[in-house]
Amino acid sequence: xxxxxxxxxxxxxxxxxxxxxxxxxxxxxxxxxxxxxxxxxxxxxxxxxxxxxxxxxxxxxxxxxxxxxxxxxxxxxxxxxxxxxxxxxxxxxxxxxxxxxxxxxxxxxxxxxxxxxxxxxxxxxxxxxxxxxxxxxxxxxxxxxxxxxxxxxxxxxxxxxxxxxxxxxxxxxxxxxxxxxxxxxxxxxxxxxxxxxxxxxxxxxxxxxxxxxxxxxxxxxxxxxxxxxxxxxxxxxxxxxxxxxxxxxxxxxxxxxxxxxxxxxxxxxxxxxxxxxxxxxxxxxxxxxxxxxxxxxxxxxxxxxxxxxxxxxxxxxxxxxxxxxxxxxxxxxxxxxxxxxxxxxxxxxxxxxxxxxxxxxxxxxxxxxxxxxxxxxxxxxxxxxxxxxxxxxxxxxxxxxxxxxxxxxxxxxxxxxxxxxxxxxxxxxxxxxx
Amino acid sequence: xxxxxxxxxxxxxxxxxxxxxxxxxxxxxxxxxxxxxxxxxxxxxxxxxxxxxxxxxxxxxxxxxxxxxxxxxxxxxxxxxxxxxxxxxxxxxxxxxxxxxxxxxxxxxxxxxxxxxxxxxxxxxxxxxxxxxxxxxxxxxxxxxxxxxxxxxxxxxxxxxxxxxxxxxxxxxxxxxxxxxxxxxxxxxxxxxxxxxxxxxxxxxxxxxxxxxxxxxxxxxxxxxxxxxxxxxxxxxxxxxxxxxxxxxxxxxxxxxxxxxxxxxxxxxxxxxxxxxxxxxxxxxxxxxxxxxxxxxxxxxxxx
Lengths: 434, 304
Description:
The structure holds two protein chains of two kinds. A four-stranded mixed sheet of chain A has the order 2-1-3-4, with helices on both faces. Chain A is elongated and about 105 Å long. Chain A has helices spanning 3-17, 20-46, 63-70, 95-106, 120-123, 136-157, 162-171, 191-225, 229-233, 238-277, 284-290, 296-323, 327-353, 358-365, 370-381, 389-414, 424-430, and strands spanning 52-58, 82-86, 112-116, 127-130, 179-182, 185-188. In chain A, helix 16 crosses helix 17 (424-430). Chain A is built from 17 helices and six strands. In chain B, helix 5 links the parallel strand 6 (151-155) and strand 7 (182-187). Chain B is an alpha/beta fold. Chain B is built from nine helices and 13 strands. Chain B has helices at residues 42-49, 89-99, 104-117, 133-145, 163-178, 190-196, 214-221, 263-271, 286-303, and strands at 2-13, 16-27, 31-35, 57-62, 74-77, 151-155, 182-187, 199-204, 207-213, 225-231, 243-248, 253-257, 275-282. In chain B, helix 2 crosses helix 3. Classes of the chains: A alpha/beta, B alpha/beta. Chain A binds chain B through residues 3-4, 6-8, 11, 15, 222, 226-228, 230-236, 416, 418, 433-434, and chain B through 47, 50, 52-54, 71-72, 74, 76, 78, 80-87, 91, 95-96, 98-101, 140, 143.
């Protein structure tokens, strides 16, 4: 590439990279991550879950033993998650006891207390009182343990021995483990996080292509509307100017993606283990990110498809910029291009679940869908490559070459055309100009 | 040898023939004034020279024998000239210098020199949008000459400049001319053209109506005017068969004689009638030539 193109590349890159908007945009994600971690760390320390103390008034005399047995959960530090104490009362009137327990809860000596009525088998109503009743996960567990105990007692009442009941109950528990099939064999992995990664990354990819594509349109319009074009093209060929712009803005996008990608990588590789080491329970979200298959290979394809997808779309965006005088005028031409991108995104959502159908294959080879659809197929099929992955790089390359050749001709005429915006038909006529 | 050769170029926009069969050439060291009224086709001609617009027919040969990339040898100040508003002055100049493949070191040196010379050095680190229109014009001019071009093409260089800055730019153009730079510029300001150019081309309605060295053009135009200051009655001006036409400006009168009348005869004729304070035979000014030529061509066209 010659010096003149580099001059344009560096102008496009540095004038934009120095703006507040870009710096904030680039660092926002890492900053959010840092805050998130800091927050988890600080709150994790402060709100380290401790043993929850429950008092239980079991009027049946049979439930308490069973439910306690069913909740042996422990915390990270080894102590019990739930600690129960049974309150026995001979008094028919429970009121004084309950009043006493209420005071204990308010004084934070107790997390809460449960009243299991004598007629639980029929009424199925258990009363739980506490200061905080929104810890659904814990309450669900307790609810489950009591339900289980009630079922057991009902079965006992039908004449089954406790041993049989216990044996049969535990025999019925199943475990769901998901496996991913690849040519290299089975890989166990959390299915959810892989789809999440694919959607997230593909969304990011398409978003960036659109954002930086529109930056190109704005950049071309600026030169046109400020009447800068003529000064510039007395020194550089229009096609070189266009290429310089495309590359300069592309580098902005890649810089941003590399920064964000590196943080996602660090997060997935070291985030959860780090917190675990600090003795802090990992939040679910982080567990999912920790399970992401965000390997350097996926990252490489991510950048590659951004680069190619961007070139393909941004070249069209450049054509639009050269044809119009204001951003408003451009909207009419931009809409179909953006639509094309969105269609690709929707196809991607289906394809991510069935990446190996012929339809998925062909859709991923259509150049305008390749960045989203093929990337999704690669991410989902990782670590093996889906069919057509290498071919798609060639088809994209050829498409980009042809589009640039075509658009260069429109661009050359368009950037010097002031006044009324042309129709698409007129713009296509420019291609045939000398 | 010709630095630029324009051969029979024509260009039409829709039904309008903007440039019609224009030919001219300039030699190294020439300063060519491209003159003409608004809409004459000056800018279109310049754009064809710069290969911004492709002529419908005809050809332009520019710096044929140079080995270097010819765009680097040309400085072009377009009529439509804007600049990146959000960039700092020095960054814009460095960018434009890089586009001409100047060496970084030379570029910085030249930028400082010219910013100092045109009184913009204080604004070096300011954004363009903070500059006044006139300052932006000067900046544009610096950008055009920064890389020491062999050929300078200036489209209306004095547009929007006050007299002081106009003189400053003229001074620099004369300096460049003395240094051997070949210059083409278009203007309405006949006075500037007269001072700066050695050659002119007068275009009207897309056609060349006059061209050549200034002296030759004036000679071929032929008409000599008499500048007369006097005391006495102005009756002698009226119904005088020797006078083709006159303009009375109060303090003095400009007189054009009939073709076959010599100034000597005219002087003899009037010397008895008035008291003469000043009698001067003047060459026609470029302004006169411009107005007369354009006027007569327009009349011809009207008759057609």
